Amino acid sequence: MSAESQSKRVILLSSSLSYRAEPFRAAAERLGLRVTLGLDMPDPLAEYWSPTLPVDFKLPQPAAQRIFEQARADPIAAIIPVDDGATIIAALASEMLDLSYNSPEAAYNARNKYAMRQALTRAGVPSPHSTLVSVDDDPHALAAQVRFPCVVKPTMLSGSQGVIRADNAEEFVRAFQRAGRIARNSGGANDENADREYLLIEEYIPGFEVALEGILLHGQMTVLSLFDKPDPLDGPYFEETIYVTPSRLPAATQDAIADCAAQACRAIGLREGPVHAELRVNERGPWVVEVAGRSIGGL
Q1: CA dihedral in degrees (258, 262, 264, 267; nearest 10)?
Q2: What is the pLDDT of residues 224-261, one digit of tens each?
Q3: Distance of alpha carbon 211 from its chain centroid, rounded?
C-alpha cells in the first residue's frame, strides 16, 4: 500500500438507515483510504458514529457547505453518494472543493424524472413521451386526454415507489390518486429533495427490462454488469424481483443497450462516478426508463 493511498480521505454520504454504507466503507478501507461517513442525522446522534459528519439531506446547500468547511480542515479526495438523496449534495460540495464529479445540474437531471425526460428528448435518446401534471389536477379530466396504456409516477422517488400502470380511464383515476398520495407524503416539510406537487404521466413502453451498472470517467462509460430481469414487469405495479447476470442477451443487443445508456448519460450531463440505468428493450431497440448517478440498490 502506497503512502499516497494511505493519506487520502473520502466521504461516504449515506442515509443513517442504509444497509449499503458498511460494504462501501469496507471496500474503501481495503484500498487504504480513510473514510468519513456523512450521515443524514442530527448532530447529537452522530456522537455514537465515529468518524461521522452529520449532514441534513433535506437541505442540500447547507449540507454541501458543511462538507466544504470540514474538508478545508481535513482535505478529501472524493465524495461518494451511496443513496439517491445524497447525489445533489455530493455535486454541490464537489463543485465548491474543485473535485472531479458531476455538475449540480446533471445530478438534478438524474434525480428529477421530468428534468431527465426533457434532457433525453432534446438529445434524441429513445425515451417515453411524458407530461408533467399537478397532484391537484382533476384526474377525470386528465383521463380524457391520456393515451392508454400509460404510467403515472412521482418525479423524485426511486425504487418504483408510486409507479403505476393504467390501461383505461377508471384505472388512471385510481393510479393518479394513489401516486398523488405517495408524492404528497414523501419527504418532510422542508425537504428540498422531495417533490410533493407534481406527477409524471408517461406512455407505457412494452418489452423486457434490464439494469445496467457502469462507471463514468471523464464522460466515458465502462459497463460493469448487465442484469436481465426474467420476471415480466408489465404492471400495474413494478416491484423489483430477480436480477440475473451475466446477461443471456445476444452480444449485439447488449452493445445497443450499453450505447443507449451512454447516450443518456451524455444527454443528462453525467460525467463521473457510478451509473445505474434501467432500460426496456423491444423490436425498436432499447428505451431509457431512468438513469441514476449512483450504484445499484436492493439487497
Answers
A1: -160
A2: 999 999 998 898 998 888 999 999 999 999 999 999 99
A3: 13
Instruction: Give residues with Cβ within 8 angstroms of 38, minimum separation 6.
Output: 11, 12, 13, 14, 52, 53, 54, 55, 67, 79, 86, 89
Please state, in angstroms and rounded to a whole number, the distance separating the CA atoms of residues 254 and 83.
Answer: 27
Kindly report which listed range (39-43, 146-150, 178-182) carries the lowest average pLDDT score: 39-43
d(CA 232, CA 254): 19
Give the C-alpha distances (Å, rounded to integers) separating 34 from 69, 99, 194.
18, 17, 32
Using CA atoms, how far apart are residues 259 and 262, in angstroms rounded to an integer? 5
What is the CB neighbour count within 10 angstroms for residue 2?
8
3-state DSSP assignment of residue 13: strand
- 63 in Cβ contact with 89 (< 8 Å): yes
pLDDT band at 163 (very low <50, low <70, confident <90, very high): very high
CA distances from 38 to 117, 221, 253 (A): 30, 27, 39
- Listing DSSP states for 106-138 in one string gives HHHHHH-HHHHHHHHHHHT-----EEEEETTS-
- Give the number of C-alpha atoms closer than 13 A to the C-alpha of residue 82, restricted to the C-beta side: 24
Q: How far apart are CA 239 and CA 121, in angstroms?
A: 26
Instruction: Look up residue 132 and give its three cell numbers.
Output: 408533467
DSSP string, 159-194: TTTT-EEESSHHHHHHHHHHHHHHHHTSS-TT-TT-
User: Can you give the pTM of this predicted structure?
Assistant: 0.89
